[in-house]
Structures are given as C-alpha cells and as structure tokens.
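Duplicate of #3305? Posting structure anyway:
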C-alpha cells in the first residue's frame, strides 16, 4: 500500500474539513449550474433564476454574511438527515431569511465563487473553525 499519496485524511484538520466542504460546494455548484449556461433567461425561466457571475466581486461584510450562512448550511447537510432534496432547499431558504438575505444574493455569490479568489479566500476563512460539534 502506498503511503506517499496525499488524501484528505492524512492532510490533517484542513484535509478532513475544508477539502470535503469545497468538494461539496463544487458538487452543489455543478448541479445548481445545470441548464444555466448564460445570463439570459430562456424559455421557462424567470429573471429571478438567472445569475450574473462577476469576477470582480469584492469580499465585504455582506459576502461574509452569505459565506457564514453557506458554512452553516454545509454543516447541516453533512450532519442532518433530510428526507427529500426539497427539505435541503427549505433549510437554505430558512437560513437566508433569518439572515436577511435573498436567494438571488446567495445564488449570485455562489456562482461568483468560481471566478472570484477574494470570495473563495473569505469562505475559507469563515469555514476555518469547521462545523460545530454535535
């Protein structure tokens, strides 16, 4: 068995917590992006479901708040049992509402993670402490 291979388990705390979190974000981003290949609403879509991805999104107090909601959501998805995928969406909606954020703000932030290093750095800083102990 090879022992020189770097896996999340032998990368320490960061490998056990941050690597899976970013993997989950990428996975969610992949599914969330299905069918949303442009910034133009097509047939059957509404302008509310169209995201505008910007590479120059600055990391500020508002994006930190969104990052905090996302980290808490990822922790919940990893620790709670949701009967249906719709329950995960409802959980996100509740978290956003409680934080005074809209789904569109979250979606734009989420889509911008792909192209904004400042947002990725901010998300990494917010998620540095990991999930709360159950």
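Output from current build:
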């Amino acid at each position: 068995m090879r022992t020189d291979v770097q896996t999340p388990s032998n990368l320490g705390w960061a490998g056990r917590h941050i690597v899976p979190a970013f993997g989950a974000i990428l996975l969610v981003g992949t599914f969330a992006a299905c069918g949303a290949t442009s910034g133009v609403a097509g047939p059957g879509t509404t302008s509310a479901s169209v995201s505008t991805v910007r590479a120059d999104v600055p990391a500020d107090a508002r994006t930190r708040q969104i990052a905090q909601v996302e980290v808490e959501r990822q922790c919940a998805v990893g620790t709670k049992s949701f009967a249906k995928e719709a329950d995960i969406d409802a959980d996100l909606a509740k978290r956003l509402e409680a934080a005074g954020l809209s789904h569109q703000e979250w979606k734009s932030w989420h889509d911008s993670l792909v192209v904004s290093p400042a947002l990725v750095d901010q998300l990494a800083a917010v998620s540095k402490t990991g999930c709360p102990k159950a």
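Confirmed duplicate; merging threads. The longest helix spans residues 12-32. The chain is about 55% helix and 0% strand.
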